[in-house]
Amino acid sequence: MASTLGPLLLSLQLAALTTLILVLLGTPLAWWLSRTRSRLKPAIQAVVALPIVLPPTVMGFYLLIVLGPYGAIGRWWVEVSGEALTFSFTGLVIASCFYSLPFAVQPLQSAFDALGTQEVEAARTLGASEIDAFFTIAIPLSLPGFLTATVLSFAHTLGEFGVVLMVGGNIPGETRVVSIAIYDHVESLDYASAHQMSIILVVFAFAVLLSMFLVNRRLEGRSR
User: Fold this and answer.
1) Residue 117, CB half-sphere, CA atoms under 13 Å: how many?
2) Is the CB of residue 172 less than 8 Å from the CB of residue 180?
3) Could you give the CA distance from residue 224 to residue 219 in angstroms, rounded to a whole number?
4) Could you confirm whether domain 2-223 is CATH 3.40.220.10?
5) Which of 7, 19, 96, 165 is the least buried, fewest Cβ under 10 Å from its Cβ?
6) What is the DSSP letter of 137?
């Protein structure tokens, strides 16, 4: 039981922290993409969407280089903290944020696109600042998008394997998340343990997605 609980708790911690960071950073990016007319918009959208089409090992390989002790980010981190980002929980969080980025930004952008500009402009004409209008109008009306972004980011991070293995390796208590633990059990022909972990993920993922669809349907019904 302990061999199952440890990786599962570590995975939940990784997914929760990654989701929180992505919602905080992805919200202004999604709002900008929804409102901007910049010529850079298609290029930035393509960069955001890259993790969807790139093989996880490809992204994991380049993140391993960048976050490594001799990489652009990794070298700076070693100088500041004295520790390497690779094969650490902090490195896993950074890598997961990159790999799950489109699962946060795209639902938020779609929600902001559907919102239009009338409500926000009406608030501005009544004296609200742009930030006030965003927090009092845009966010409440875009709650289904925030819920979708949160659930998809969390679920995608929870089940990631390739990027996690490349950047974090397999260190018990540090980077051995549930997807890596399942792979280890299968490799050692311990199918019973692999099945136990896998069924937990399947049931959890189904419950989370079902809850998301039910809540979103209720929110959409209220908005109508």
Assistant:
1) 5
2) no
3) 9
4) no
5) 165
6) I
Residue type present at position 151: V
At 140, the amino acid letter reads: P
Tokens of 4: 């199952």
Map out the domains of the chain as residue ranges: 2-223
Amino acid residing at 157: T
Instruction: Read off φ and ψ for residue 152, nearest 5 degrees.
Output: -65, -40
Query: By the 8 A CB rule, do 176 and 7 touch?
Result: yes
Whole-angstrom CA distances from 11 to 84, 165, 197 are 20, 13, 12
Q: What is the mean pLDDT of residues 29-55?
A: 93
Q: Model confidence over 41-51: pLDDT tens digits?
A: 999 999 999 99
Report d(CA 141, CA 132) in Å as an integer.
14
Residues 6+ apart with CB under 8 A from 220: 144
Residue with tokens 């650490």: 88
Taking only the tens place, the pLDDT of each residue in 63-98 is 999 999 999 899 999 999 888 999 999 999 999 999
Listing DSSP states for 169-202 in one string gives ---TTTT--HHHHHHHHHHTT-HHHHHHHHHHHH
